[in-house]
Amino acid sequence: MLSSLASDEPFGSAATPAPAEPAGAVEDVDALLMARVSQGDEGAFKTLVEKNQNYLLNFFARMGAYSDCEDLAQDTFVRLYRYRDRYQPTARFTTFLHVLARRVWADRGRKALRREKLATCLEAEARIIPFTSDHGPATADIDAALAKLSPKLRDVIVLNIYQGLRYQEVAEVLDIPLGTVKSRINLALNALRESLHEP
Amino acid sequence: MNPDHASSPSCPQCDEIPALLAGELAPAVAQQLQVHLESCPSCTQTAASLRFVIGKLQSTASPQASAEFSNRILATIQAPEIVRPSFFAFSRLHRWTAAAAACIIGLGVVGLWKHRPAVAPEVALEIPRVSPTDATDASLTKALDWFCRTQEPDGSWSPARWGGDQRFEVALTALPMVALLTAEAEITPERATAIAKAKQRLEAFRANNGAFGTRFSGASYNQAIGTLALLQAYKQQPDPAARGPLTNSLAVIISQQTNEGWWGASQAVQPNLAATLWQLETLQLAVDLGWEDFRPHLNRGHEWVNANSPARDLTLPARLPSQGVDFFDAYFATTKLRSAVDPASQQRLAAIRHSLLEQQISQGEDSGTWSPDGRWGQVGGRLYATAMASLALR
Questions:
Q1: Which among A110, B53, B86, B275 is least buried, having the fewest CB atoms inside 10 angstroms?
Q2: B20 C-beta neighbours (distance < 10 Å), count
Q3: Which of A51, A73, A189 is opposite residue B18, by nearest beta carbon?
């Protein structure tokens, strides 16, 4: 999966999800803001950032990022800005933003892998306090349960349960069939039921 | 491992339960599965177990960006390799600084903006306006501006200050917020700020168990309308962290529903049609947003309304606003009429809107408002009249 996201130029036509519904059927405030950003409206971009920053941070935190959540979110916004002239509102803006965020996350994974190979980052990573560690034992349990999931299952849980994307939108972000989303969510929830020791 | 948690459930329909809980099933399929759930212990247990897991996952706090986060991004994009040179003069940084100062509140809360095409001329030019007339837009603009002017510093609107009953502070903070959120009008920074402050105030009104306000004879209105406003905010900006508290508030609503399907104004002493309609309005939005578990309660409420007030056709309000102002009827009638396409319904919708436009106060301190002359005027005051009229004009 990561190999398909390896390009340093993540904004090719393949990165833009297929339309979830006919263009213009639903008003998308962020898509309108992007249109204004492409026309040089600086305030619109600031609005976009402030509107979506916590949402993006949540994505990276649930995906397993530690102290670098803000760096990853910043990278995503910068890529979004670079893409402003080519953005086409063929899908809901939120869907597109998650496509970018997943590419940033994938890049981070590759960099981490390279660091691991060089055996230079392990000690540093071990010293980093997880983002959610101060939220109590219950959160630690949830982090551990999420960490046990395979990347594919974690993807669908983060996008659907935490980020609130509909199944169809999850399918577009991950570029997989709707039925696969459904089955992965079922598998993931069953695994989480076991991990979280439901009373 | 609990053997009941086996990943291959004994009942094949168990596989559909996650989709049901996520609101992903077609209504007819969801309804069939709900019926099945009532008779299948395995599925019932699976559903309860999945609710527990999802609730636990969603119970964790969401991260918040640091204060300098957005400024850091802005500084990054202003780097030469990212900006388009023609747009960026030396003064740009100063403009950002000024904008940041001016918008420290407004843009910090823009998650609730409902940015209509009307405020983005460069975009609006390409998107044809469909329904609201210019007169309606102007009327709504005046009303929404009045709400912004009269909001209290803590984010509420004070009923007593505007001729209403202070005990309805929750409902009468929620109604202007809904009007601001859903009006087909420009969302200025002032309006975005007003919405965010109102949302914060409503969340402060809400107890941990999801209940709004204090118990009194009209508590169910506060519960329904307060929840409705926060659901509208969730609709604009789905925040997973908001789902838990919203579910609690919805649970309070259904806990007050009688087995027959109706609600009372306070405790379930006697049926109250108006109170029931507000609860159903809220439950309908919740179901639309994916709270599928509440559909049976919604259906039961509709069945009671249909069975017990058959003469009350909500598309035919007994009194037009010009014939003894009734903002409640205008609101519920226009809600129904907006989805109707037949000429008679459209004529009635136009008549109600015309009547409302004629009665809006156009001058003086109360410019933009409606006088609280009709039913519930003494309870809701000018806030209620203006919010309900604005909502009817959407």
A1: B86
A2: 22
A3: A189
Per residue in B284-334, pLDDT tens? 999 988 898 899 999 999 888 887 764 444 444 445 445 555 788 788 878
* Residues B252/B210, Cβ–Cβ less than 8 Å: yes
- Asked whether the predicted pLDDT for residue B200 surpasses 50, the reply is yes
Bridge partners of B206, per DSSP, are B212
The answer to whether the beta carbons of residues B244 and B59 sit under 8 Å apart is yes
Beta bridge pairs of residue B212 = B206
**Is B173:B181 a contact under the CB 8 Å cutoff?**
no
Choose the closest CB to A32 out of B82, B103, B123: B123
Task: State the first-to-last Cα distance of chain A, in angstroms, to the nearest integer.
Answer: 36
Interchain proximity A46–B96, CB inside 8 Å = yes
Q: What are the distances in angstroms from CA B313 to CA A141, B155, B316?
A: 53, 36, 5
The per-residue pLDDT for A152 is 93
Average pLDDT, chain B: 76
The 3-state secondary structure of B17-82 reads: HHHHHCCCCCHHHHHHHHHHHCCCHHHHHHHHHHHHHHHHHCCCCCCCCCCCHHHHHHHHHCCCCC
On the 0-12 / 13-18 / 19+ scale of CB atoms within 10 A, B274 is middle
Q: Residue B323 in 3-state DSSP? A: helix
Chain A contact set for B19 (CB, 8 A): 167, 182, 185
> What confidence tens digit (pLDDT) does each residue in B154-167 have?
999 999 999 888 88
User: B2 and A194: CB-CB below 8 Å?
Assistant: yes
What value of ipTM does the predicted structure carry? Answer: 0.75
